[in-house]
Amino acid sequence: MDNLVIEGGVPLHGTIRVSGAKNAALPILSAALLTDGACTFRNVPKLRDIDTMAALLRFMGCETDVAAPVVQVRAGSMRRAEAPYELVKQMRASVLALGPLVARHGRAKVSLPGGCAIGARPIDQHLKGLEAMGATIRLEHGYVHAECARLRGATIHLDMATVTGTENLMMAAALAKGHTQLIGAAREPEVEELGRVLNKMGARVDGAGTDVIHIEGVDTLHPVDHAIIPDRIEAGTFMVAAAAAGGDVLVEGVVPEHVDPTSAKMRAAGVEVTREEGGMRVRSPGGRALRAVDITTAPHPGFPTDMQAQFMALMTLAQGASVVTESVFENRFMHVPELNRMGANIEVRGRVAIVNGVDGLSSAAVMATDLRASACLVIAGLVATGQTEVLRVYHLDRGYEAIEAKLAPLGARIRRVRAAT
Ligand code: EPZ
């Protein structure tokens, strides 16, 4: 078990490179189940979640070769259409195997992902969509059992713009007989990217990235060689870190449009955010000189819920009070008590947090509870006076590739230590 030790109060300067997107890589690795041939994926981030997805594919009998940033998957040897609880409990995105397994092999046994730190997170929309395509679904002993000789196209109205729900149903519909419409689909860049990969495999997906996706099913799909898009949440995290600590940082490799919602709010707070050849430049006088800004999280192109905690850390020092409304998940303020332990002044009322800007944060030992909450505490540690210790960074390692090694060249005093046993 590792912790991160951070000496705060140092402005950041230089260039930091963004890795491939975790939330694009996970569905894309799962899409390899739709063909027997060898798929090659490039720019894959070196993360614990990628290892878990590879372990899941191997459990099913696939051959995998994980040498991030290159990952190869050969699903031809797959013999077990199952995602066991042991793996699903480590990573709920394992549920992304459901659609491809039913579509390609006519059956799937996938553990129901339980609740998680940020919310109940049911998968009813995933199951509703598969049933609409003709699958029979049984829930037994904590598992979803889905069966269908051949899925058929259907018109599916999603009750909410679920990201992995949209992705699961896109993959299922790619090999279904006939035409599928996903109405109310998620528009995240990662969904659009999955549409690109499926089409490169021979699928007929139209409208990925919009709220209505059309899929004309085909009989077979072929292998693909594809480089994954950059991680907009990792990029946003680095942009906000630079804004909070102050300094001048180029975040390299990010697609500017993908971080528009975050950039807009940073500019409203008084941060200079500009597009530059190869990335986004952030120039900031530091958190205390910034204005309080209200945010409400929403599906893309709204403000990303995966940036809420990090942006809240920025607002802890802003002039005035900012209202942070979390509309996507019902329990995503677990970072607030830890920020208050560092001297922040935040009140939570249900899904709304009122962040009253303070003069400074003081260092403390803080505990991460989930991936983005951990990133928020790293940012707080970069601005706090003294030495902050962020415990349980295994959460962080799920979604950030060697964050301390990336931040240190910017001048951040951050290092990884083995936790005392
Ligand atoms: C994806 O999760 C991301 N994970 C999450 O990122 C991200 O926070 C989330 O989308 C929202 O942007 C991956 O892509 C692997 P949803 P997902 O289905 O697909 C409700 C991170 O930090 N809902 O879009 O699980 C649900 O409870 C992670 O990298 C249902 O009610 O999220 C939530 O309130 C955390 N029924 C809302 O919809 C369903 O069947 C949005 O969830 C599906 C979802």
Brief rundown of the structure:
This protein has 14 helices and 24 strands.
| Hetero groups | ligand EPZ
User: Quick one: biggest sheet?
Assistant: 4 strands, mixed
- The beta-strand count equals 24
Task: Kindly report how far apart the N and C termini lie.
Answer: 8 Å
Secondary-structure map:
Elements: E1 2-7, E2 12-17, H1 22-31, E3 38-42, H2 48-59, E4 63-67, E5 70-74, E6 82-83, H3 85-88, H4 98-105, E7 107-111, H5 124-132, E8 136-140, E9 143-147, E10 155-157, H6 163-174, E11 179-183, H7 189-200, E12 204-206, E13 212-216, E14 225-227, H8 232-245, E15 247-252, H9 260-268, E16 272-276, E17 279-284, E18 295-296, H10 308-315, E19 321-325, H11 336-341, E20 345-349, E21 352-356, E22 365-367, H12 371-383, E23 387-391, H13 394-397, H14 403-407, E24 413-418
Parallel strand pairs: 2-15, 3-14, 6-7, 10-11, 18-19, 22-23
Antiparallel strand pairs: 1-23, 1-24, 3-5, 4-5, 7-9, 8-9, 11-13, 12-13, 15-17, 16-17, 19-21, 20-21
Helix pairs in contact: 1-2, 1-7, 4-6, 5-6, 6-7, 8-10, 8-12, 10-12
The structure holds ligand EPZ.
What does this molecule look like?
Helix 6 runs parallel beside helix 7 and helix 8 runs parallel beside helix 12. Strand 18, helix 10 (308-315) and strand 19 form a beta-alpha-beta unit. The protein has helices at 22-31, 48-59, 85-88, 98-105, 124-132, 163-174, 189-200, 232-245, 260-268, 308-315, 336-341, 371-383, 394-397, 403-407; strands at 2-7, 12-17, 38-42, 63-67, 70-74, 82-83, 107-111, 136-140, 143-147, 155-157, 179-183, 204-206, 212-216, 225-227, 247-252, 272-276, 279-284, 295-296, 321-325, 345-349, 352-356, 365-367, 387-391, 413-418. 30% of the residues lie in helices and 26% in strands. The radius of gyration is 21 Å and the shape is elongated. It has 421 residues and is an alpha/beta fold. It has 14 helices and 24 strands. The protein has a four-stranded mixed beta sheet. The protein has a four-stranded mixed beta sheet with strand order 2-15-17-16. Strands 4-5-3-14 form a four-stranded mixed beta sheet, with helices on one face. The protein binds ligand EPZ. Ligand EPZ binds at residues 23, 26, 93, 119-126, 160, 162-165, 186, 305-306, 328-329, 371-372, 399.
